[in-house]
Amino acid sequence: MNYTFHQIQVFVKVVQLKSITRASEELHMTQPAVSIQLKNFQEQFDIPLTEVVGRQLYVTDFGKEIYTISERIINEIYAINYKTMAYRGQLSGRLNISIVSTGKYVMPYFLSGFLNQNEGVDLTMDVTNKSKVIQSLQNNELDFALVSVLPEGLKINEEILLDNELYVIGNKNAPRNKKPISKHEINKMPLIMREEGSGTRYVMESYFRKYNVPLKKKMELTSNEAVKQAVIAGIGNSIMPLIGIRNELLTGELKIIPAIGFPIKTKWRLIWLKSKKLSPIAEAFIDYIRENKDDVLKEQFAWINKINK
Description:
This protein is about 45% helix and about 25% strand. It is α/β, with parallel strands linked by helices.
């Protein structure tokens, strides 16, 4: 046996994501490089670790056992590094955050300064939809979650970061209405929606339920980026958070369509379980947020008030 720590890292990431493509993206490697490292690691075992059926990658039972051990090795190596930094008086360890997909336009700006100040902190940030974020929070797998819609039935603490505003949007050919369109006019539009479990989808459905207007959808997509591109292409309209369409509004590819009842306003919140004992790193991060939030809002999000709505 002559495998390297890097090969173990690659194997673990491929197993976690069930995809060489996604593993290469997260590891900042090319797909061929990931494939070579995975092949070199697997060749040191007489029993296959993974199998490819069609285009889908599957982990064998033996591979699952090796994955469990490999993950433990990685965690122990990290623990050695963290202990070394702690003895030097540096804040060290891992910060685990899960955010809803639109949160990728928010969370990095609240993390960058903290991570730059604390080089011993490693960040794990999962970007997914609301239902999966809440599930991870319930399972106590996270330090924090970033959401724009509060979960029901969970006792949580929260730190409000900034306002979240959702608007009806169309592409560059959308007509400029002299007055806001009605709820029934919105319903007549070919609406492009996010998938079930998305926070944006939840807000859209809540709006139509509130005004007792039947919801008709034209298309369902699994990411905000896909929704944006569909609207830009003229396939339909949508309801989207302002935070995620800044560049498209500035270039004129998208337009905000004035509508009755809009914008719909929520809050971007960093939340954590009340019952959770925060690690020193998590405590330090919350302290950083509270001390620097106003500066981050001023430097990174002042554009929100300047957009022509």
